Amino acid sequence: MDDREEKKIEALLGGVRLKRPPEKLMENYVSEVRRKIDVPPAGPAFGLATAFLIAVAAVGLALWLHQAPVTQPRQVAPEVPAADRLSGGETGDSKASFEEIADEWLILQMLGEDQGVLDAYDPLEGDLEFLAQA
Amino acid sequence: MKDDLELVAEFQRGNQRAFDELVKRHMNKAMQLAYVVIGNYEDAKDVSQEAFVKAYRALGSFRAQSKFSTWFYRVLMNTAKDFLRQRNWKKFLRWDKSESMENFFESVEDARQSPARELLGAELDQKISRAVAKLPFKQQCVFTLRFIEGLPLKEIAEITGLAEGSVKATIHFAVQKFKQSLFPYLKEEVRHG
Predict the structure, then answer these.
(1) Beta bridge mates, A18
(2) What is the mean pLDDT of the segment spanning B83-91?
(3) Which of A74, B59, B70, B87 has its CA 20 to 30 A from that of A118?
(4) Best residue in A19, A28, A50 for a mutation probing chain B (most B CBs within 10 Å)
């Protein structure tokens, strides 16, 4: 900041001082401080304003939870016994999924991205090897 | 007469009267500073007394790394800040009655006084009070400590908890705002000065 500006302010405020407080107000100042010291400090207390804010926040949270979409538990398909998976011919669904997996496996092999895939398809490992031989 | 640090040492050794002596020495200044930022004497008294109570409770661990007054005025400023935060919230909810602006400066005979000041006198005191009252809390504190109390930057930094660079910047912004409020009177100053 420009020193000249500070000098101007100093010149303007030269001779200004803070007003002394009224004497009557200061008569028992020290004894009043003593009295306040002797009162044990109150524990943490919420003022009315803080309590109001907390109440508003709590109501808002309750409304939000009430209106939030209820999430359905993830549907996990029941495990198909191994014998049914192999034969598969009787049930169209098993055969369709089997062929889909085989197609995907061929595509992955063509792309050279078949490494480690078998780990994910561990239960079907035998089936895929069978397909690879076909 | 014992200085502040000697009184603090006595208090720490168990002499309660030493603390009373410290209160007597600093109560007027505490009231004055609290009044600048609070705006009325009743609340300024409560705030300054609360600051003394806090100082009493913390004085046992005061390590004399700064002056007692510097340390205490920091407690006072923080207490005033908490009070204003509560009061502004109440004002926002219209639970608090409006405060009237009182003049908290008075003129004294001073060789530094400029001719313009002599001419404008009481009217200018009121304008100065209003201009300072309009400043945000931090600028009010720094401006008052710098230009009225004449404290060095280092001490202002200790009282306010700001870095010296921040104090300088705050003074700069406070001066700009102050000048805007008092532009006609500052022009008068230039003419007579």
Answers:
(1) B105
(2) 75
(3) A74
(4) A19
Has residue A113 got a pLDDT over 90?
no
Contact B36 A18 (CB under 8 A): yes
When CB atoms are compared, the residue of A5, A10, A16 closest to B107 is: A16
Strands (E), B66-155: 105-107
User: What pLDDT does A9 receive?
Assistant: 82
Q: Which domains does chain B have, with CATH numbers?
A: 4-92 (1.10.1740.10), 115-192 (1.10.10.10)
Residues A107, A113, A115, A117, CA torsion sign: negative
Q: Where are the domains of chain A?
A: 89-133
- Residue A90 confidence (pLDDT): 46
Q: Is the pLDDT of residue B63 over 60?
A: yes
- In B108-134, which positions are buried (b, 16+ CB within 10 angstroms) versus exposed (e)? eeeeebbebbeebeeebbebbbebbbe
CB atoms within 10 A of CB B98: 7
Q: Does residue B32 belong to the interface with chain A, where contact is any CB pair within 8 Å?
A: yes
